[in-house]
Write a structure and sequence with these properties.
This protein is mainly α. It folds into two domains: 55 residues, no CATH class; 156 residues. The protein is built from nine helices and no strands. It is globular. The N and C termini lie far apart (39 Å). The model has no long low-confidence stretch (mean pLDDT 90). The structure holds fe (ii) ion (2 copies). The site of one fe (ii) ion (FE2) has 6 residues, from α5, α6 and α9.
């Protein structure tokens, strides 16, 4: 297991340990210019729940770190806000960036395999957007109503809303494998490498995102449902 960060660590050290943490930190509205301030100091300044912040950071670094959701005492609004920021990041940055790299790769060769890869990616994108839209239009409003207004839609539960994530992760790794194993070598190496690296980074981020939904959001909401029923 890699190191676990605590409130006393300097924020700069988090970033220096893994630059992939930067977009995650940004989702909390925290940006560079940390000086020697600790996680606790910066979270306080930015009005961020440091327990939740550290749970997210440590889970990203150590996928098995996540404690039982019941142990995390985090406002549900903060969880939903973080997940929405992550969706925005995917839609506004990750997806367009992956497409920019894919189009460079496509232009570098006209091998038939590349068009199959493009088709595979475009089908995947439809599925991804549909998944995100379902959460934005159904799951999150349901959760926020439940938490803020104690209003529970009749006959609904978080388990009936939230969909499986395995498929979304697996398709991205299928796409990577397809390229690594079967792409005819008539393309620009650098464009292909950049595309693969972007896919890998996205896959890691997406797995982390799914873990937060499955292991934090769903159990926390299920507990609230139980309490409202009781
Ligand atoms: Fe999501
Ligand atoms: Fe999801």
């Amino acid at each position: 297991m890699k190191s676990i960060f605590t409130r006393e660590h300097r924020m700069a050290d988090l970033v220096l340990s893994d630059y992939n943490l930067l977009p995650i930190i940004n989702r909390f509205g925290i940006r560079l210019g940390f000086r020697d301030k600790t996680v606790e100091q910066i979270c306080k300044e930015r009005n961020v729940n440091s327990e939740f912040f550290l749970a997210i950071i440590n889970t990203y670094i150590n996928p098995d770190y996540l404690p039982d959701s019941g142990l995390i005492n985090v406002p549900v609004n903060s969880i939903v806000d973080y997940l929405q920021q992550t969706h925005r990041y995917y839609i506004e940055y990750t997806v367009p960036e992956i497409e920019r790299l894919l189009s460079l790769l496509l232009k570098s060769s006209n091998t038939q395999n590349l068009h199959l890869i493009e088709k595979f990616y475009l089908d995947y994108k439809v599925e991804l957007i549909e998944h995100i839209q379902n959460e934005e239009s159904q799951v999150f409003p349901y959760v926020l109503n439940l938490v803020n207004d104690k209003f529970r839609k009749v006959n609904y539960s978080i388990h009936s809303f939230e969909r499986e994530h395995t498929d979304l992760d697996e398709k991205l790794s299928d796409l990577r494998n397809l390229i690594i194993k079967y792409l005819e070598p008539t393309y620009n190496d650098n464009f292909c490498n950049d595309f693969l690296l972007a896919l890998q980074r996205f896959e890691d981020d997406l797995k982390d995102h799914a873990r937060i939904e499955d292991k934090i959001l769903v159990p926390v909401v299920a507990k609230i449902e139980e309490e409202l029923n009781g």
